[in-house]
Amino acid sequence: MCINCALQKQIVSMREDLLHFIWKYKKLRLSDLRTSQGESLSIIDFGRHNHLAGPDFFNAQIDIGGQVWAGNVEMHLKSSDWYAHHHEQDTNYNNVILHVVWEDDGDVFRKDNSLIPTLELRKYIPLQLLQTYQSLFDRKNVHFINCEKDIGDFDDFLMKNWLERLYFERLESKAGFVFDLLKKSNNDWEQVLFTFLLKGFGLKINGAAFLSLGAALEFSIFRKQQDSIFQMESLLFGMAHLLEDDTVLDDYYIELKKEYAYQKRKYGLSDAGVQKPDFFKLRPPNFPTVRLSQLANLYAMHQSLFHKVISAISLEELYAIFNVKASAYWDSHYTFGKESRKKAKKLTSKFVDLLVINVILPLQFCYAKHRGVDINEQIIEVISEIKKEGNTVVSNFGKMGIAPLNAKESQALLQLYNGYCTQNKCLQCVVGTNLLR
After folding, report:
1. Residue 426 neighbours by CB under 8 Å, 6+ apart
2. What are the residue boundaries of the structural domains of the chain, listed by start?
3. Which residues of the chain are under the pLDDT cut of 50?
4. Alpha carbon distance 141, 149 (integer Å)
5. Does pTM top 0.85 for this prediction?
């Protein structure tokens, strides 16, 4: 098959990020380049890759027909995509000096009707690169990720560095949620911690329900009850709609219900927007009753919890802070009115690890970022002490020879899988780009 015919076949599955890759890493033939208009073309400077809005590469220098132009480069699979994206109406594209496309299907003009020189890239690409690219995205024999046949042989040093970058990328992705909570709370970090902890205590099944509870209950009200675990529990259970069963005749339940009715009137509380937590498919230690009691006891033990959490610089300190258990009633109960075998409902180290991974370290990261302080090394030290997480994604990477040593690396692999592998962003991944290079 001729090269041109093979190239035509590749365009069926081609993505625009391949064009970015080819340009960024200079993977095209650089001699005898010509624009679609027939002018000679020489690339002096490829420019800087732009990952934000606007042209794809800034500050390039291109010699076209003997004249040097300085400006930006925009890329598309087809020339006509320029108009599909309405760039002719956007002043940000007025300084585009070269339109790099895979297929030139028509002339393109700036807003002032001046013609933009076009480079049709497919004429200058080695067939071998396209074959490698095609094999990377060939899903026929893929069970997990595109590069599953090659990732196990990837350079260990590069992988370690990439995983550390991915971990902080995961922290950054969580930062948006934290700063959104901060904005909603009028910059009240205590409220942010309270709401974020509730979400963490709810885990996957009740995270959303507990989050709605945090959004409805002002921490300033909750804090007023910190001298009484009973009053804190009544607020949490009541707001979570866990005190609405009139058939329960348990004395503790009845007293909680009375206390919540009093506090609801006193503070003008509304639980209308709070989602009732679920018990279904949960192991009894994770029942919302037990988790909310543990949270109440945590705040009863630490009057200045936010300060302690933010100041903790080691995993040992954090374990000490979260060394709490549910109230005595829950030693013999998982739900109201039904006795069970007596056992203290203490926060396990595994559960505390999850809180540190998903709540405490992201919060510390955001608080430091808010204050303009760098605590990245401290965060790395703590997360590296936590055991790796066990889930299907981490297990599948392990089968391919990428076995995480700790929670930092298992978190990074989750970011890799969800942010790159499932999105087919192989050319934005260190593994994918190195395979092509």
Report:
1. 136, 137, 146, 147, 420, 432, 433, 435
2. 3-126, 188-347
3. 1-12
4. 10
5. no
